[in-house]
Write a structure and sequence with these properties.
Blueprint lengths: L13 H6 L15 H12 L1 H8 L1 E4 L3 E4 L4 H12 L2 E6 L5 H15 L4 E6 L2 H16 L9 E4 L3 E4 L4 E6 L2 H5 L5 E5 L6 H16 L5 E6 L6 H10 L6 E5 L9 H11 L1 H7 L14 H6 L7 E3 L2 E3 L9 E6 L9 E7 L5 E9 L7 H11 L4 E4 L5 H11 L7 E4 L5 E4 L14 H16 L3 E2 L3 H8 L1 E4 L2 E4 L6 H12 L3 H7 L3 H17 L7 H4 L1 E3 L5 E4 L14 E3 L2
Parallel strand pairs: 3-9, 3-10, 4-7, 4-8, 8-9, 13-16, 15-19
Antiparallel strand pairs: 1-2, 5-6, 6-7, 11-12, 12-15, 13-14, 14-15, 17-18, 20-21, 22-23, 23-24
Helix pairs in contact: 2-3, 4-5, 5-6, 10-11, 13-14, 15-17
Length: about 575
């Protein structure tokens, strides 16, 4: 049988497609301007709002391709971009927030030579989509307004005037690769905290090196994470960022009927987060949303090599460290938390978190932290690689301050003296232990018996939610630091803890609850009517108010008589 080969479709890269695109100006092409075009070019270069409302085209669901009709809040955003170097905005979903930035970026690269823009998003596809929309708007510009194209790729474009845009995911590596005049971070609240903080540590030197460099951060909230910290720091004047808030009500056409229907479709909690831009969107967090919102962090006194010190160790104070060990894949981190257990309320004194450290080196970090904090006792979760960490600490480093546990039959896992041959060099995080630890942690935080002042821990608490009759991090987030708190909360109910620290958490909570109950139930006080009738003048004479004994009205002065 004779087969006719099928011609394969020609595969072109973006540069090859651009080379045959009649709507794009090629590099080196000269265009003669009319007087009107020169005047229009100058006017656009000086007024970004004018440029967007006359030349910036978008694709809409209802009207197809059209020049943007900017909402009032989009205009306000653009003005903020123009007048400020650092802007952080909380904006509702599907509000057109990103379009405002796209228009500003397009204007920047057109009318500023060698202007470098970095677009960073929580996902690579999102970053590519933003660049694609800018490229679409560029194609719709008249040729006399365009710069010649040097590069036209999926992840980047470069113009003949030396300006360029690069689009990628937010990561430490992406921040180090280039220097930028403008950095735009989209949906920054959805970037894991350790990546977000590492990114800023990497790019800030390049940002601060210029006097006109700009950073725009726009996102829908997602718990009390790094974005929340940056927002709060800006609101409280601890940073140079200017804040901007745009809710569903700032989008024309969205009224109370739209709100009612959207809530019916997505639920109240999702609406609160995505459209009311509330930072607490999860309704099933271990710690109540009201309490989470009241948690406040402090700046560390030390922050080096993944070890953050909130309170320096003091002579005579007692400390306990709880340890969680991870394989270091994806968001999983090895972490430990130092607790000051010298008095109530118990405080988090320091914390460590690293997703790259080897389990062979991790024991050294724990060892030095314990020595730094007055030879603190250490409780290690020995599930998986935790057993190796405990063995290295105990045998290689000859560390004697390990808290051991053993199983006591129906009484479950208990802290052990260590003399039992079956004693473990740490804690097995079973379902029962986790359930007890979670319950105790909730009580301790919500009754202020445990004070948490670290921003990363607070962030993890805000995404530590109920799943399958237990609690764990929401998808895309981690709970390594919270699990250290869970281990500590389990330990705090052990007799060993009471003997070691002379602290009884249950008794403390019970006494406080009883005092609150008594204050609620008892009357405000007893009214001594006789005492209210008597006053004493400067000569020591006691006067009695007769108006209490009469139904008639008395003059203010005539009602007082000497009291014998």
């Amino acid at each position: 049988m004779d087969y006719t080969p099928i011609k394969q479709p020609e595969i072109l890269d973006d540069n090859e497609r651009f080379s045959g695109n009649p709507f794009l100006k090629k590099a080196g092409v000269k265009i003669e301007f009319t007087k009107e075009q020169i005047e229009e070019y100058i006017k656009c270069s000086q007024d970004v709002e004018y440029f967007m409302e006359n030349y910036f085209k978008i694709t809409t669901l209802d009207d197809g391709i059209k020049i943007i009709s900017m909402y009032d809040f989009q205009k306000e955003l653009v003005r903020l971009f123009n007048d400020n170097r650092f802007v952080i905005a909380r904006c509702a979903r599907q509000s057109g927030k990103t379009i405002a930035v796209e228009g500003y970026i397009l204007h920047s690269i057109l009318f500023n030579p060698t202007y470098r823009v970095g677009i960073f998003a929580n996902k690579g596809d999102v970053a590519k989509k933003i660049l694609k929309e800018i490229k679409f708007a560029y194609e719709k510009l008249p040729l006399w307004m365009q710069q010649g194209i040097v590069e036209w790729n999926v992840h980047s474009i470069e113009l003949e005037n030396g300006s360029f845009i690069k689009a990628t995911t937010t990561s430490e590596a992406s921040g180090r690769s280039n220097t930028y005049n403008l950095i735009f971070m989209d949906e920054f609240a959805f970037v894991p905290d350790h990546i977000a903080s590492d990114f800023f540590e990497a790019v800030y030197p390049t940002i601060s090196s210029g006097k006109s460099t700009k950073v725009f951060i726009i996102s829908t909230p997602k718990g009390l994470n790094f974005f929340y910290k940056m927002w709060t720091d800006a609101e409280e004047g601890r940073s140079d960022y200017v804040t901007y808030l745009a809710t569903w009500a700032d989008v024309p056409g969205r009224d109370e009927e739209w709100r009612r229907m959207t809530i019916a479709n997505v639920g109240e909690q999702s609406f609160a987060q995505e459209y009311d831009v509330d930072f607490i969107g999860s309704s099933n967090t271990l710690i109540s949303g009201t309490k989470i919102k009241s948690l406040a962090w402090i700046e560390p006194v030390q922050n080096k090599d993944h070890f953050k010190v909130l309170h320096e160790p003091k002579s005579g104070r007692e400390y306990i460290i709880t340890v969680d060990t991870a394989r270091g894949v994806e968001n999983d981190c090895s972490a430990f938390v130092v607790f000051d257990v010298s008095e109530f309320p118990i405080k988090v004194a320091a914390r460590y978190q690293d997703n790259t450290i080897s389990s062979l080196l991790y024991p050294n970090a724990i060892y030095h932290a314990s020595k730094y904090y007055n030879d603190a006792m250490v409780l290690i979760e020995v599930n998986d690689l935790g057993q190796q960490v405990a063995d290295i600490l105990h045998e290689d480093l000859e560390f004697e301050n390990l808290i051991m546990t053993e199983f006591k039959g129906r009484h479950g896992q208990r802290v052990s003296s260590g003399f039992n041959a079956k004693a473990m060099k740490g804690l097995n995080m079973s379902k029962t232990v986790k359930r007890i630890g979670c319950a105790n942690l909730k009580t301790m935080i919500e009754t202020d018996k445990l004070v948490v002042e670290d921003s990363e821990i607070i962030s993890e608490i805000s995404t530590f939610v109920e799943k399958k009759q237990s609690f764990e991090a929401e998808e895309g987030y981690n709970d390594d630091l919270v699990m250290c708190l869970v281990s500590f909360a389990w330990l705090a109910q052990q007799e060993y803890f009471k003997e070691l620290t002379n602290k009884d958490v249950r008794k403390e909570v019970k006494e406080d609850s009883e005092e609150d109950l008594l204050e609620t139930l008892l009357p405000a006080g007893f009214f001594d009517e006789e005492a209210e009738r008597v006053t004493v003048d400067s000569q020591g004479t006691r006067w009695y108010d007769q108006s209490y004994d009469s139904e008639n009205d008395f003059d203010e002065f005539s009602s007082w008589n000497k009291f014998y």
